[in-house]
Design brief:
mainly beta, Immunoglobulin-like, 5-stranded mixed beta sheet, 4-stranded antiparallel beta sheet
């Protein structure tokens, strides 16, 4: 390394040299965790140079981010670690699901068989068991008789469950009531209904 003496007659020429490595004795600065340590050796005019400053601060090396792209508006990092939003349309035959292009699932099948209500004929004030399990649904809601339950299956719904934990138990039913299951998702939209009837009271004449 060439060393110059500024504001001196020697400026622009050699004033000495600095050696950054040597073996007699072993010396030379090292770089670890972004910090220089060690010594360099100069000639008669310069002497030793120490890199062991107490004011060093570690420098975090720059590491490029891996760019990611999604098929919906989602925040992500590009290859320079800056936030961007990219909209990448899915190829023909694919649909967007949770930020990725995927093969569309089968529609809800078989239609008309997801909602089960038992029994369908009860005495006034009785309760019924309601169950459903819809494949490929993102969300489902069951309404009717003053209740609103959510969940793609009765086992995971926010309801009062029966002893098996798989079906929901309705509140007491005092009049004919229709329960409606509504689901949405990649499999399409689904609406099913089931009606519970009240058994008439018989009076002997």
């Amino acid at each position: 390394m060439k060393a110059l003496a500024a504001n001196q007659a020697e400026a622009g020429g050699w004033d000495g040299f600095i050696s950054l490595s040597g073996t007699s004795p072993d010396y030379g600065p090292t770089l670890a965790s972004g910090i220089f340590t060690g010594y360099a050796w100069g000639d008669t005019n310069l002497g030793w140079i120490s890199f062991n400053s107490p004011y060093h601060e570690a420098v975090t090396p720059w590491v490029p981010c891996t760019p990611t792209y999604v098929c919906t508006d989602e925040t992500h990092y590009d290859d320079e670690c800056t936030i961007e939003i990219e909209n990448i349309p899915c190829s023909a035959g694919l649909v967007c699901s949770t930020g990725q292009c995927v093969i569309p699932p089968e529609p809800f099948t078989p239609p008309g068989d997801e909602l089960t209500v038992n029994p369908r004929l009860i005495r006034k004030g009785g309760t019924v068991s309601i169950s459903w399990d819809v494949t490929y649904a993102d969300s489902c809601t069951v309404t009717g008789g003053g209740i609103t339950w959510t969940g793609t299956s009765s086992a995971t719904a926010d309801c009062t469950h029966d002893a098996s934990g798989e079906a929901c138990v309705s509140p007491p039913i005092n009049a004919q009531t229709t329960f409606t299951l509504t689901c949405t998702g990649l499999g399409g939209d689904l609406t099913e209904t089931a009606t519970v009837y009240i058994s008439p009271l018989w009076k002997e004449l």
